[in-house]
């Protein structure tokens, strides 16, 4: 028999939104970094539909309901990463469900490190 896990109450969390050109992933964790819930556009969509703003909105609403139902999370701070098209729609749908304290862009930017790949010729 499975033992039921008692859910803890986390009122403040951090939402990590990683929006690539092919997919969007959203993770909500507590302030220590322990993952509470997550969702990916690949769970619901296949192919090029994964990278759409609609897919990002759907998974943001799913993650928000998971965090509110299981952990009664009320406030989050958002960290964005990547150049994908689902960034803004994910932020707006999370902002409609939670109280947002801060929005921070943590996309890594090279300081002239490795040589870039050659330009595409189409």
Q: What is the topological layout?
A:
Layout: E1 12-19, E2 24-29, E3 35-40, H1 53-71, E4 75-81, H2 87-97, E5 99-105
Helix pairs in contact: 1-2
Structure commentary:
The chain is an alpha/beta fold and 122 residues long. The protein has one domain: Ribosomal protein S11/S14 (Nucleotidyltransferase, domain 5, 2-Layer Sandwich). The chain is 25% helix and 28% strand. Strands 3-2-1-4-5 form a 5-stranded mixed sheet, with helices on one face. α1 (53-71) packs parallel to α2. The longest helix has 19 residues, at 53-71. The protein is globular.
What can be said about this structure in brief?
Helix content is 25%, strand content 28%.
Task: Considering the chains and any ligands shown, give keywords for the structure.
alpha/beta, five-stranded mixed sheet, Nucleotidyltransferase, domain 5, 2 helices
Largest sheet: 5 strands, mixed
Count of helix runs: 2
Radius of gyration: 16 Å
For the biggest β-sheet, the strand order reads 3-2-1-4-5
Which stretches of 5+ consecutive residues score pLDDT under 50? none
CATH superfamily: Ribosomal protein S11/S14
Strand content: 25-35%
Distance between the termini: 59 Å
Q: Estimate the global geometry from the Cα principal axes.
A: globular
Q: Care to count the β-strands?
A: 5
């Amino acid at each position: 028999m499975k033992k039921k896990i008692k859910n803890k109450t986390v009122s403040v969390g951090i939402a990590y939104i990683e929006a690539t050109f092919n997919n969007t992933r959203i993770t909500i964790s507590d302030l220590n970094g322990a993952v509470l819930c997550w969702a990916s556009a690949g769970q619901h969509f296949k192919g090029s539909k994964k990278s759409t703003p609609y897919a990002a909105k759907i998974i943001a609403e799913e993650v928000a309901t998971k965090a509110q139902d299981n952990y009664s999370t009320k406030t989050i701070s958002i960290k964005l990463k990547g150049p994908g098209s689902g960034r803004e729609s994910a932020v707006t749908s999370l902002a409609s469900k939670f109280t947002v304290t801060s929005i921070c862009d943590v996309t890594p930017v090279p300081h002239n490190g490795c040589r870039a790949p050659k330009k595409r010729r189409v």
